[in-house]
Design goal:
single chain; 6 helices; 224 residues; four-stranded antiparallel beta sheet; disordered C terminus; alpha+beta
């Protein structure tokens, strides 16, 4: 991928980089910062359907599907690398291993979507929030952007609510309940986990669906 012509672009918080109905000509890879994928209902309600962290391919589906079916919006000031779809396709056709890696990335995205459906459809508000915090902890740790034991949450309470299908008021109550029960500590945007094993047991979190191997420093409080 590094051998391909890449155009690095800076995006400000809140800016849209893809809108539903767009026909992207490029594949975007998030180099720094965070972005969300979301859809808007007829009544104007937003449902966040995915969170991208540095290293993620933002619009992987556009390699095969021309039209975008959802919006992509920046959470933070971010840099994305744009690569021509045609050049990526040529690369995938010529390098079997890279093609397999892209396919695997697409399948992991599908696995995460399945877990989000379960989370939002069958868990209560407190558990939904706790589960999402666990997922971000694992993904950021494996990506080298968190200590595992703590990280800076890139989302507001309103955005968390839009990701798990509850109001910002319920998010606030859920965070306070998790803190009151000794499962998380929160200071501003900083989230830490005083008892990881207890938290993941209570919210039903298992990192299996992320298909990652947690770093060795988590051996005492396994993320799996």
């Amino acid at each position: 991928m590094e051998s391909l012509p890449i155009d690095e672009r800076l995006f400000e918080p809140g800016s849209f980089i893809i809108r539903e109905g767009d026909f992207p000509r490029e594949i975007l890879i998030l180099m720094s910062g965070f972005c969300i994928r979301h859809k808007i209902s007829k009544d104007g309600y937003r449902q966040i359907v995915g969170i991208n962290i540095p290293g993620d391919i933002i619009n992987l589906q556009n390699l095969c599907l021309d039209e975008s079916d959802h919006n992509v919006q920046m959470l933070t000031r971010s840099i994305a690398a744009a690569v021509s779809k045609d050049k990526v396709r040529i690369l995938l056709n010529s390098r079997v291993a890279i093609g397999a890696a892209f396919l695997a990335a697409s399948l992991v995205e599908s696995s995460i979507y399945r877990e989000w459906i379960l989370n939002n459809g069958r868990r209560d508000s407190r558990t939904r929030i706790g589960h999402l915090l666990c997922e971000l902890a694992v993904r950021l740790e494996v990506g080298g952007m968190g200590s595992g034991q703590a990280y800076d949450l890139p989302m507001t309470q309103e955005q968390l609510g839009d990701a798990v299908g509850i109001t910002a008021v319920h998010v606030n109550r859920s965070l306070k309940a998790l803190a009151r029960d000794g499962l998380i500590n929160q200071v501003g945007r900083r989230i830490s986990f005083p008892n990881w094993n207890r938290l993941k047991d209570e919210v039903g979190f298992n990192a299996r669906y992320l298909y990652v191997r947690p770093p060795s420093q988590w051996s005492s409080q396994t993320l799996s």
